[in-house]
Specification:
2 domains, four-stranded antiparallel beta sheet, 8 strands, about 25% helix
Length: about 170
């Protein structure tokens, strides 16, 4: 670019800057100067608009990233786990199934309809709770603590159609 072209470009930039300074704006850039949006967007080139849009998107993305990477305050557990237990009267969680939402650290005797009936059992809250299954009521007798068993009849088969009570405690 020759010297005349440089002076012309310089005058254009100066004149444009004066227009921006002289005119008070009610445009969004007046409220949010970090967005760098010109008060007269209809006179901007496509390049200026693309730069402005990219800058806005980059700013928003950085705020989302910073919020997502913020550490959790100490002592605050963000896991949400519901304590639920599923009993099914057939293997592989088929047949008639019942889901129970017990209170933590409390022994539950199965109702007569389900006492000694389950052939598969699943602790649905196994990430946060450990359940123990018992052959007798009141959480007495022989116990078993596999958290998900699709076939209580395999292995020694002792717990197939034999569970009478259970308890689940936080891990």
């Amino acid at each position: 670019m020759n010297e005349r072209g440089i002076r012309s470009l310089s005058r254009y930039k100066t004149a444009r800057a004066q227009k921006l300074v002289q005119k008070p704006s009610r445009h969004i850039s007046a409220q949010f100067p970090c967005l760098l949006i010109s008060p007269e967007p209809q006179r901007e080139s496509r390049f200026d608009i693309m730069v402005s849009v990219r800058l806005v998107l980059a700013t928003l993305a950085s705020h989302v990233f910073l919020a997502a990477s913020s550490p959790t305050p100490s002592g605050l557990d963000t896991r949400v786990s519901v304590l639920a237990v599923e009993f099914c009267d057939s293997t592989n969680f088929r047949g008639v199934c019942v889901e129970i939402n017990p209170d933590s650290a409390q022994c539950y005797d199965l109702l007569p309809d389900w006492d000694n009936r389950a052939s598969s059992v699943d602790n649905l809250g196994k990430d946060s709770y450990k359940c123990t299954w018992y052959l007798d009521g009141n959480c007495q007798g022989t116990s078993y603590d596999n958290q998900k068993d699709a076939d209580l009849g395999d292995g020694n088969g002792l717990f197939d159609e034999s569970i009478s009570s259970f308890i689940c405690v936080p891990k």
